[in-house]
Amino acid sequence: MVKCAFQTAVCKWVRIFKGEDPRETILRDGKRSGRPLSASLMAHQEKVDCMIRANRRVKQKEIANAVGISKERVHHIVTTVLGYRKVSSRWVPRQLTVEMKAQGKDMCTQLLELSTVFILA
Q1: Residue 86 in contact with residue 59, Cβ under 8 Å?
Q2: Per-residue pLDDT at 11 exceeds 90
Q3: How far apart are CA 13 and CA 28, in angstroms?
Q4: Is 10 or 59 the better-scoring residue by pLDDT?
Q5: 39-115 architecture in CATH?
Q6: Which residue has the higher pLDDT, 7 or 47?
Q7: Cβ contacts of residue 58 below 8 Å, gap of 6+?
Q8: How would you classify residue 46: left for phi > 0, otherwise alpha for psi between -120 and 50, otherwise beta?
Q9: InterPro entries given for it (predicted)?
């Protein structure tokens, strides 16, 4: 009987993952000892936020070079932690701030008052 490389590999995987009960075999990595993630610290987040507020057209590569962290960490901080996204090559917040909501409310009430004046006239 001639075995091919594929069959040999499959047999090896079966031996590796086979336990007393194959359903109880854990395939996920456990926690590892080692260096913790330090690129997403509050200090880095504040620096990134300040750079974006100062220049909305700043590039992730420029932020990474200035702060001293990887582009992937910068992308994570900007999009996930700070909640920014790119629109027309500018970073804009994903959610409205309290000031933006208040300004929108004021504009709506002014428009409502104007519409009632025109209806009554």
Answers
A1: no
A2: no
A3: 15
A4: 59
A5: Orthogonal Bundle (1.10)
A6: 47
A7: 51, 52, 91
A8: alpha
A9: Transposase-MT_Hybrid
Structure tokens at 31: 């926690």
Tell me how many helices (H) and strands (E) the chain has. 5, 2
Q: Is 87 helix (H, G, I), strand (E, B) or coil?
A: strand
pLDDT digits 0-9 by tens, 77-104: 998 888 888 877 787 777 777 888 899 8
d(CA 51, CA 118): 46
Helix then strand then coil, in percent of the chain rounded to 5, is 60, 5, 35
pLDDT averaged over every residue in the chain: 79
3 state DSSP class of 73: helix
CB 44 within 8 A of CB 75: no
Evaluate if pTM is beyond 0.70. Answer: no
Residue 119 belongs to what H/E stretch? Answer: helix 98-120
